[in-house]
Amino acid sequence: NSRHFHSVTNKEEIDWSFLQKTSANSVTIQPSIPLSALILFSSHGIYTPSQGEWVETYFRVEASRGESCYDDNYQPGFFHFEVAP
């Protein structure tokens, strides 16, 4: 999500989707309309794609100022890492 400080993202207003091209340790995420792509890579992590869900985020400082305080963020998947104790 690319949150601008004067606006928020509303998932109900987005008329396009995201496409994922994955490998074991990377993912390329592109919107279905021709914009830029996001490429994420990890030399030690394993990428696990999800169904692609929207997560609503609440920004309490913006709420205290009386500004728009809810933003929808797209979550395409996650990287899994083994961390030594």
SS element count, helices: 1
Oligomer: single chain
In terms of DSSP E residues, the strand content is: over 45%
Rounded radius of gyration (Å): 15 Å
Label the structural class: mainly beta
> How are strands sequenced across the largest beta sheet?
1-2-3
What's the total number of strands? 5
Q: Tell me roughly what share of residues is in helical segments.
A: under 10%
Helix-strand pattern, N to C? Answer: EEEEHE
Unreliable runs: none
First-residue to last-residue Cα separation: 32 Å
* Bulk shape: globular
Tally of domains: 1
Overall average residue pLDDT: 85
Structural commentary:
The protein is mostly beta strands. It has one domain (16-80). Helix content is 6%, strand content 47%. The protein has one helix at residues 60-64; strands at 18-23, 26-31, 38-41, 46-58, 70-80. A 3-stranded antiparallel sheet has the order 1-2-3, with no helix packed on it. Strands 4-5 form a two-stranded antiparallel sheet.
